[in-house]
From TrEMBL:
Domain spans labelled Radical SAM core: 100-336
Record flagged with keyword Mitochondrion: no
Name under which the protein is recorded: Radical SAM protein, MSMEG_0568 family
Reported cofactor(s): [4Fe-4S] cluster
Pfam families given in the database record: Radical_SAM
First and last residue of the signal peptide: none
GO molecular function, one term: 7,8-didemethyl-8-hydroxy-5-deazariboflavin synthase activity
Lineage: superkingdom: Bacteria
Record keywords: 4Fe-4S, Iron, Iron-sulfur, Metal-binding, S-adenosyl-L-methionine
NCBIfam families: rSAM_MSMEG_0568, variant_rSAM
PANTHER family cross-referenced by the UniProt entry: FO SYNTHASE (COFH), LIPOYL SYNTHASE 2
Length: 358
C-alpha cells in the first residue's frame, strides 16, 4: 500500500494502516483490539499506530517524516508511565491490570475471558484471551485493584480519563454489574475521574443494568456492534451476530436516555467488507439517534483468526473516504468525540475522526 494524500487526515489515515518506524515504550500486543499499536503524540494528540519497520513514515528529532521528508507535524513517542513500575498490595504488577492508552487514558479489561471465544463463535478480529494466555494480564480485575491503580496513574502520570471494557459473561447483564462495581470503587478513590464503560447489550429483560452503570458513576458508555450489515456480522462475529440488531437498538436507545446524547458510542470497523456507502449512512443514522459512531480501521492483530488467515488492513483511500464523510456528518450534527468526556471517542487515538474535525 502507498500513502493516500498530503492532508493531515490523509497522513493520519496512512499511519493507521501503514504504521510508523519508532521506538515506542508504550505499546500493546494482542488483547481485545483494535490492533498491535505503539502510542505516540502527533501534534500533541494521543495517537495509536502500528509499529512497522517497513513503513515509509518515521519519527525522528521530534518530527513526523515521510520517506525522510519533514511533514511539519510534531511527533514523539509516549513515555513509559511511572505507575507501570508499581505492584498492588496483593502482589500484582499494575501493568497487568491496566494500560496507558494515548497520552492520558487508563484502560483495562475487567474480565479477560469471553463466552464467545470458542473458535466457532469468536470475533475474527479479537484476541481478548491471547494476552491472558501470554501472562500479560489477569483473568478478573477486582474493584479494589483498579481503584489502587487508577489513583496512582492519576497522581503519578496525569491520567485524565479511564476506559473499562469486559469480555462477555454468561449473565443477562453481559458483565455490566461487575463493571459497575469497578466504576464505583475507582470513582470513590479518584473523585471526578471520567470513566467510560463498554459491554455488549444487556438482555432485553435486563436493560436496567445500563442505569446501574450510570448510577455507579460512569460518564459514558460504549456498546460496540463493529458492523451494521448482518451478513458481515455473521461472517466476522458469528457469536455476537446471534444478538439481533433490535437488541442493539434497544440498548442504544436506553443508553442515550440514561447517559444523554453523545455520551454513547459504538465501534464501526472499516475493512470487514461492508459497503462504504451503507456504512456511512448507518453511521450517520446512529449519530442522529445520539450514538457517536467511532470509525476505526480493521487492522491485523496478533492472535486473531483473521490475522492467521492473512486478512490485511483496508485500503487507506477507502478509510479516508469513509472517515471524511462520517466526520462531515458529525460536524453538521454538532457531535465531537472529545465531548464524550471519557472513552475511545474522547481519546480518539485509534481513529482519524479527530483529525477530520469530529
Amino acid at each position: 500500500m502507498t500513502p493516500t494524500t498530503g492532508t493531515r487526515v490523509g497522513h493520519r489515515v496512512d499511519l493507521a494502516i501503514l504504521g510508523v518506524r519508532v521506538d515506542a515504550p508504550v505499546r500493546r500486543r494482542a488483547g481485545a483490539g483494535p490492533s498491535d499499536d505503539g502510542h505516540v503524540l502527533l501534534d500533541g494528540a494521543g495517537t495509536a499506530v502500528p509499529l512497522n519497520p517497513d513503513s515509509p513514515y518515521s519519527i525522528s528529532g521530534g518530527r513526523l517524516l515521510l520517506d525522510g521528508a519533514d511533514l511539519g507535524l510534531d511527533a514523539e513517542a509516549v513515555e513509559r508511565p511511572r505507575f507501570y513500575d508499581l505492584t498492588t498490595a496483593d502482589g500484582v504488577p499494575y501493568e497487568k491490570l491496566a494500560r496507558l492508552h494515548g497520552k492520558d487514558v487508563l484502560a483495562t479489561t475487567v474480565v479477560q475471558t469471553c463466552i464467545r471465544y470458542d473458535e466457532a463463535d469468536r470475533c475474527r478480529f479479537c484476541a481478548i484471551e491471547a494476552s491472558l494466555a501470554a501472562g500479560a494480564t489477569t483473568a478478573v480485575k477486582t474493584p479494589a485493584q483498579l481503584a489502587e491503580v487508577a489513583e496512582a496513574a492519576v497522581r503519578l502520570d496525569g491520567v485524565r480519563q479511564m476506559v473499562m471494557t469486559t469480555g462477555t459473561t454468561n449473565g443477562r447483564d453481559r458483565g455490566a454489574r461487575h463493571l459497575a462495581r469497578c466504576v464505583r470503587a475507582v470513582t470513590a478513590a479518584v473523585p471526578g475521574l471520567p470513566v467510560q464503560v463498554q459491554c455488549e447489550p444487556p438482555a432485553p429483560e435486563d436493560l436496567a443494568a445500563i442505569g446501574e452503570l450510570k448510577d455507579a458513576g460512569a460518564t459514558a458508555i460504549g456498546i460496540h456492534v463493529e458492523a451494521l450489515d448482518d451478513a458481515v456480522r455473521s461472517r466476522w462475529m458469528p457469536g455476537k451476530a446471534g444478538v439481533p440488531m433490535s437488541q442493539y437498538d434497544a440498548a442504544w436507545a436506553e443508553a442515550v436516555r440514561v447517559f444523554g446524547r453523545n455520551r454513547v458510542s459504538t465501534y464501526l470497523l472499516v475493512g470487514l467488507g461492508e459497503d462504504p456507502d451503507e456504512l456511512v449512512a448507518g453511521a450517520l443514522d446512529l449519530a442522529r439517534r445520539g450514538v457517536y459512531p467511532f470509525v476505526v480501521p480493521y487492522r491485523p492483530l496478533a492472535g486473531t483468526l483473521a490475522a492467521a488467515d492473512g486478512v490485511g488492513a483496508p485500503d487507506p483511500a477507502v478509510l479516508a473516504d469513509v472517515t471524511t464523510r462520517v466526520a462531515a456528518g458529525l460536524r453538521t450534527l454538532g457531535m465531537r468525540g472529545f465531548d464524550q468526556g471519557a472513552g475511545c471517542a474522547a481519546c480518539g487515538a485509534c481513529s482519524a475522526l479527530g483529525a477530520a474535525g469530529a
